[in-house]
Structures are given as structure tokens and as C-alpha cells.
């Protein structure tokens, strides 16, 4: 029916990009990139999907460049100050920092606060160091737990891959070519567990399907039927 929208995905410049397709009575294809990054293709009723996606690929560099340009104008998260009362996200929830003097150094969740205690005078540098180290330890522990648990749904790959957790700038994770080693972004510890699970399952699917082709998304849909909701949530809250 004219006016209906359908959701699709296409690989442009090495990344999988979602787009919406609308059929209309128009005679030519139009491609629009919105300020929030959404992509809309409006195509004639008679156009087949392959022809539409060929056109999208030809315009791929323009689409990606336009999305990057829009990103420059989105609100930027203020630099962290690591002062008492500042909020930090952990497993999808916001916690306020409590910074106090103590005889020994410790970081712990206490209700709706992340309590950071250490000897001596309080300083933003010391607080930052202790908090980042704590986030790294939590990331290694929780991401490994989720990887081991979720790998059980992939008996075809055998043992869970080895895991490395470190700060990444452009991706949430990656899988080695042989499927023996997974790399995950430390920042995932900020995300809800269902979003963490999406990233891990996505990478586990790459053991069997290295590329983002139809077979990959069929496998991902089979292993995690609501993966798109989780992906959208991750992209919305993790800016």
C-alpha cells in the first residue's frame, strides 16, 4: 500500500546502516538523511528492492558524510569533572558520586550512589583514577559472565571465545577471523544488560557468518529475536 514504511538494513562503507523505505506514486527515487541520523528512501511502487539498494550504495558516501555532518551539531556530553554529586551510568542506571575520606581505598555501589573512598585530601584526579579502574574491573567480570552464559546458545562454536575488554572509539565489539577471540568496549558496562547481550550475540553470530549479509541477520534473528529493539536502545542512550 502506498504510504506504508518498511524497515531495512544495508551495508555502506563497511558499516550496517538501517533505513526506512516508503512506496509512493512518485516516478523517481529520493533519499533523505534526517538530523537524527535516520535515512528515508521514497521509491516508485514499481521499483524492486535490489534496484533501490544499488542506488543507495551509489549514494553511500554522501549518506555517510551527511550523517557525520549532522553529528557535529548534536549535543555533546560535558567533560567529566569527577566531583561529588556528578552522575555516571552503570548497567543502564544513573548513579551519583559520593566521595569521602577513608583509611583505605574502596569503590562500591550504595543505593543510588557510587561511593568512592580513599585516604588523604579529595581530588578529581584521584577520584577519576579509582572510578575508571573500578569500571574496568566490573567490565571484565560482567562481560565475561555474559559471554560465557550466551555462548551456551552457540553449541556449534564450542568453547566461548577468549575475551579482551578495552576502551574502543568507534565500535562496541569485534570478533577475530577464526572466532577464537572477542574484543569488547569497556563502555558497555554503562549499558543495560539486555544491550550488552545484543552486542555479544551479534559478535558470536560472526563466528558462523563473518559478513553482514542476509544469512547473518537470519542467524541473529534466530538467536535474539528482539535484537533490533536492544540495538536501538543502546544507540539511544550511549551517546
Describe, in plain words, how this protein is organized in 3D.
The chain is of the alpha/beta class. It is 36% helix and 27% strand. It has 6 helices and 11 strands. It has helices at residues 49-58, 60-71, 124-151, 193-208, 214-223, 227-237; strands at 5-12, 15-24, 30-33, 39-44, 87-90, 93-101, 106-110, 113-118, 162-166, 173-175, 181-185. It has a 4-stranded mixed sheet, with helices on one face. A 4-stranded mixed sheet has the order 5-6-8-7, with helices on one face. Strands 9-11-10 form a 3-stranded mixed sheet, with helices on one face. Helix 3 packs across helix 4, helix 4 (193-208) packs across helix 5 and helix 4 crosses helix 6. The mean pLDDT is 90.
Task: Give the secondary structure arrangement, pairings included.
Elements: E1 5-12, E2 15-24, E3 30-33, E4 39-44, H1 49-58, H2 60-71, E5 87-90, E6 93-101, E7 106-110, E8 113-118, H3 124-151, E9 162-166, E10 173-175, E11 181-185, H4 193-208, H5 214-223, H6 227-237
Parallel strand pairs: 2-4, 6-8, 9-11
Antiparallel strand pairs: 1-2, 3-4, 5-6, 7-8, 10-11
Summarize the structure.
With 239 residues, the protein is of the alpha/beta class. The protein is built from six helices and eleven strands.
Amino acid at each position: 500500500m502506498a504510504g506504508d514504511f518498511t524497515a531495512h538494513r544495508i551495508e555502506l562503507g563497511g558499516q550496517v546502516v538501517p533505513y526506512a523505505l516508503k512506496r509512493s506514486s512518485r516516478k523517481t527515487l529520493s533519499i533523505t538523511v534526517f538530523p537524527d541520523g535516520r535515512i528515508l528512501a521514497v521509491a516508485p511502487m514499481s521499483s524492486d528492492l535490489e534496484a533501490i539498494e544499488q542506488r543507495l550504495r551509489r549514494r553511500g558516501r554522501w549518506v555517510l558524510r551527511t550523517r557525520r555532518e549532522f553529528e557535529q551539531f548534536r549535543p555533546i556530553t560535558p567533560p567529566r569533572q569527577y566531583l561529588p554529586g556528578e552522575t555516571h551510568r552503570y548497567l543502564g542506571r544513573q548513579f551519583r558520586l559520593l566521595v569521602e575520606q577513608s583509611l583505605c581505598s574502596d569503590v562500591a555501589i550504595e543505593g543510588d550512589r557510587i561511593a568512592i573512598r580513599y585516604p588523604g585530601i579529595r581530588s578529581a584526579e584521584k577520584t577519576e583514577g579509582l572510578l575508571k579502574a573500578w569500571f574496568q574491573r566490573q567490565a571484565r567480570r560482567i562481560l565475561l559472565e555474559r559471554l560465557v552464559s550466551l555462548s551456551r546458545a552457540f553449541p556449534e562454536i564450542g568453547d566461548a571465545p577468549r575475551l579482551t575488554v578495552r576502551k574502543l572509539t568507534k565500535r562496541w565489539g569485534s570478533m577475530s577471523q577464526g572466532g577464537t577471540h572477542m574484543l569488547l568496549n569497556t563502555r558497555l558496562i554503562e549499558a543495560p544488560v539486555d544491550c550488552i547481550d545484543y552486542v555479544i550475540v551479534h559478535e558470536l553470530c560472526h563466528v558462523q557468518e563473518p559478513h553482514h549479509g542476509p544469512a547473518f541477520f537470519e542467524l541473529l534473528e534466530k538467536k535474539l529475536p528482539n535484537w533490533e529493539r536492544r540495538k536501538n536502545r543502546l544507540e539511544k542512550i550511549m551517546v
